[in-house]
């Protein structure tokens, strides 16, 4: 593949998450993150349990009342297979090794559903309609959810990032996939079996990243090498540009020391801070590839009458998380990227004349900073509205990672390698799929019909448990209707989705 072809393939969209690079096999005994407390195992299928350990170490693995012995391989891997089970009482899982004993509790046997796709599958219960009511009524602990963190790999990787399993409760269900949760709740109303949801989704992803390299016609080794080289070249290019802009890239946030917000002090001399316009993500203003912590400051003047009362601070939306101070007093914090920030400012915090608003933003990947409408950036006092849109000051507190321009969520095979491949030994009852928006352009929508059918058939072959049910949602009527007849990639993508109904054990929700 030529570099020109490669750049055409991956585009120039800024989105990536740091790759987890295995630096060697763990010598300490470990177990796959899929087997945490509260896990759900697929009923009526042999149960494979695996992990790592010291080469040649002898282990005992006990699931309920069934025990197996296994020797760790020279490469540091181990695996045991237990007989299939039916739903019943919660099980315990113990791994006994020379160096440690691992205990896992409250493991159920039921039906496990893979939930994959883009933002519609990743959309949480907390962001859905009637969220407060839905969360307060989430009292079925037999619905459980495992969120696979965003991650990618250039080659198939057996280690699965993150976890753990969580039982549905008012405290946890807000972070569940909404489509997955409501599906599980409906199934539970008809079938009294535990339901486990494996949520491997990534907003904005195309279908190609969820497919194997060979299936797409690539040589896996050659593709991996070219993508890795291009990724490193782009990251180094951006790192150099950031250094020109801000100097040495800080590794630790000097603005927040031992929970003391040094850079929120209203008396701080910020004359050497950079200027930036808000609301606007910092990538659009010359800070390409920056993931980490960035601080923003702005001052405004209030009358004595205004300072004597309470106020409401609105900061539009912030990607990903923020902590916000007024005159050095913390007035709010939020850890959701797509919610408007609206914080109450007590009267005792405000001062006549100069007031300083400080916002610390932490971004873990993709776009970072403050975004939304200018009208959502304001301080509302009892008698006046002060716009906060426009010029602010900025200082970079910490650079945790510099992203390249490669669009991981658009690049073939990268998500499959790290978010699907590691789960192939974990049997499932079926798959739920909600994706297609990112392939709905006129030049891609027709080809989607073959890709979609190929992916379904390949996933079934890779899991090796037969033609498990594969269910998907047809693209919704999201955009305004055209007044006149027109070409529509959206309609063509729907047609391509429906074409996969030719495969057995498939269904489409319209």
Layout of helices and strands:
Layout: H1 3-10, E1 30-31, E2 40-42, E3 47-52, E4 58-63, E5 66-71, E6 77-82, E7 91-96, E8 101-117, H2 119-122, H3 131-136, E9 143-147, E10 165-167, H4 178-188, E11 195-201, H5 220-246, E12 256-257, E13 260-261, E14 274-278, E15 280-281, E16 290-302, H6 304-307, E17 311-319, E18 321-326, E19 329-334, E20 340-345, E21 353-363, E22 369-371, E23 377-380, E24 385-387, E25 390-402, H7 414-420, E26 430-434, H8 448-463, E27 470-473, H9 489-499, E28 506-509
Helix pairs in contact: 8-9
Find the count of extended strands (DSSP E, 2+ residues): 28
- Low-confidence runs: 1-26
Overall mean pLDDT stands at 92
Kindly name the structural category: alpha+beta
Count of discrete alpha- or pi-helical segments spanning 4 or more residues: 9
Q: Give the terminus-to-terminus CA distance.
A: 39 Å
User: How helical, in percent, are the residues?
Assistant: 10-25%
Gross geometry: globular
Main sheet record? 11 strands, mixed
Over all CA atoms, what is the radius of gyration? 25 Å
- SS strand fraction: 25-35%
Task: Pick out its properties.
single chain, alpha+beta, 11-stranded mixed beta sheet
Structure description:
The strands form 5 sheets. Strands 2, 4, 5, 7, 8, 9, 10, 11, 26, 27 and 28 form an 11-stranded mixed β-sheet that branches. Strands 14-25-16-21-18-19 form a 6-stranded antiparallel β-sheet. Residues 1-26 have low confidence and may be disordered. It is globular and about 75 Å long. α8 (448-463) packs parallel to α9. The chain has 510 residues and is of the alpha+beta class. A hairpin with a 2-residue loop joins β4 and β5 (66-71). The longest helix is centred in the middle third of the chain and has 27 residues, at 220-246. It has helices spanning 3-10, 119-122, 131-136, 178-188, 220-246, 304-307, 414-420, 448-463, 489-499; strands at 30-31, 40-42, 47-52, 58-63, 66-71, 77-82, 91-96, 101-117, 143-147, 165-167, 195-201, 256-257, 260-261, 274-278, 280-281, 290-302, 311-319, 321-326, 329-334, 340-345, 353-363, 369-371, 377-380, 385-387, 390-402, 430-434, 470-473, 506-509. The chain starts with a helix and ends with a strand. Helix content is 18%, strand content 32%.
């Amino acid at each position: 593949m030529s570099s020109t072809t490669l750049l055409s393939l991956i585009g120039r969209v800024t989105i990536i998450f740091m790759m987890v690079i295995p630096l060697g096999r763990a010598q300490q005994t470990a177990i796959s993150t899929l087997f945490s407390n509260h896990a759900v195992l697929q009923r009526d299928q042999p149960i494979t349990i695996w992990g790592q350990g010291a080469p040649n170490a002898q282990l005992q693995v006990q699931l309920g009342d069934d025990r197996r012995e296994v020797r760790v391989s020279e490469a540091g891997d181990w695996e045991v297979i237990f007989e299939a089970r039916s739903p019943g009482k919660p099980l315990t899982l113990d791994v006994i090794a020379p160096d440690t004993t691992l205990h896992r509790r409250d493991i159920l046997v039921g039906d496990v559903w893979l939930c994959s796709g883009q933002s519609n599958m990743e959309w949480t219960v907390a962001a859905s309609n009637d969220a407060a009511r839905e969360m307060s009524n989430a009292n079925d602990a037999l619905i459980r959810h495992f969120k696979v963190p965003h991650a990618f790999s250039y080659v198939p990787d057996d280690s699965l990032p993150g976890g753990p399993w969580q039982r549905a409760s008012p405290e946890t269900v807000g972070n569940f996939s909404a489509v997955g949760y409501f599906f599980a709740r409906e199934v539970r109303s008809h079938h009294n079996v535990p339901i486990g949801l494996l949520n491997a989704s990534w907003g904005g992803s195309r279908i190609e990243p969820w497919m194997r390299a060979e299936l797409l016609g690539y040589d896996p080794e050659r593709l991996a090498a070219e993508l890795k080289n291009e990724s490193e070249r782009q990251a180094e290019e951006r790192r150099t540009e950031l250094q020109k802009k801000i100097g040495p890239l800080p590794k630790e946030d000097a603005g927040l020391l031992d929970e003391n917000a040094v850079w929120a002090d209203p008396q701080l001399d910020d004359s050497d801070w950079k200027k930036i316009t808000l609301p606007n993500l910092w990538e659009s203003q010359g800070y390409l590839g920056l993931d980490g912590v960035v601080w923003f400051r702005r001052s405004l003047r209030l009358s004595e009458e205004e300072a004597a009362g309470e106020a409401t601070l609105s900061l539009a939306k912030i990607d990903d998380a923020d902590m916000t101070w007024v005159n050095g007093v913390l007035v709010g914090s939020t850890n959701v990227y797509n919610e408007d920030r609206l914080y109450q400012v007590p009267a005792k915090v405000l001062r006549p004349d100069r007031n300083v608003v400080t916002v610390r933003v932490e971004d873990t990947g993709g776009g970072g900073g403050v975004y939304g409408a200018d009208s959502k950036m304001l301080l509302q006092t009892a008698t006046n509205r002060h716009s906060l849109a426009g010029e602010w000051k900025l200082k970079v507190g910490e650079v945790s990672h510099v992203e390249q321009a490669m669009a991981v969520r658009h690049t073939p095979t990268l998500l499959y390698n790290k978010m699907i491949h590691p789960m192939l030994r974990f049997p499932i009852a079926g798959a739920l799929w909600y994706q297609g928006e990112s392939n709905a352009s006129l030049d891609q929508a027709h080809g989607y019909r073959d890709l979609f059918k190929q992916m379904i058939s390949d996933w079934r072959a890779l899991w090796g448990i037969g033609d498990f049910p594969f269910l998907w949602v047809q693209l919704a009527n999201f955009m305004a209707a055209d007044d006149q007849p027109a070409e529509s990639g959206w309609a063509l993508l729907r047609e391509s989705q429906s074409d996969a109904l030719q495969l057995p054990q498939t269904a489409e929700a319209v």
